[in-house]
Specification:
alpha/beta; 8 strands; 20% strand; 6-stranded mixed beta sheet; 185 residues
Length: 185
């Protein structure tokens, strides 16, 4: 019997430009891996952080009882994903969860505290396949781009900064506004 894998993404809004390309690339790589495809039933679920309720979405995905759950984490959907994970883990706690995406490195300890077992860093198409292969073989996933609670190294909290925008070296009008807020404690 195949084990169920669900990859969840949450775009910032409904738009032709808000497309979960990273999550879809990982989903496609799993579908085209013959070994994994014979053992895993993969699915991708796409939500919108501006209109889909994360608690309802978490319960919906939990009702499917996946063996594996991957989430695609960005600065703009981090709070949505935290709420999603809260509802998901409260409804179904028997899932191996990993997170990938650009924002997993900003505060990995917070992700682990929310029930995430693994972080994938970098191009997920290969690291997620290695992670799943190891799990299916009953081994501890390891290797480039795969991090577990034991392999994380604590770093000092990042401080929030505000930079002038546009930058003084850019030939644009000068306004002062935060360009990016770093996640951290």
């Amino acid at each position: 019997m195949k084990k169920k894998l669900i990859i969840v993404s949450a775009s910032i809004e409904r738009s032709p430009l808000a497309f979960p390309m990273g999550a879809l690339s990982i989903y496609t790589s799993v579908l085209h891996d013959e070994e994994l495809n014979s053992s895993v039933e993969a699915d991708h679920r796409h939500f919108y952080s501006d209109s889909d309720d994360p608690y309802q979405s978490g319960k919906e995905i939990a009702s499917l009882k996946p063996a594996y759950l991957g989430i695609s984490l960005y600065l703009f959907n981090r709070e949505w994903m935290y709420a999603f994970l809260s509802a998901f883990t409260a409804s179904y706690g028997e899932t191996v969860i990993w997170a990938g995406g650009p924002d997993v490195i900003s505060d990995p300890e917070a992700l682990i505290a929310r029930g995430i077992s693994y972080l994938t860093i970098g191009e997920g198409e290969s690291s997620v396949r290695r992670l799943l292969s190891a799990l299916l073989e009953g081994q501890e996933p390891e290797g480039r781009g795969i991090y577990s609670p034991g392999s994380l190294h604590s770093s000092p909290p990042m401080r929030r900064i505000s930079m002038p925008f546009p930058h003084p070296f850019l030939p644009c009008r000068r306004n002062s506004a935060p360009i990016m807020e770093f996640s951290g404690r």
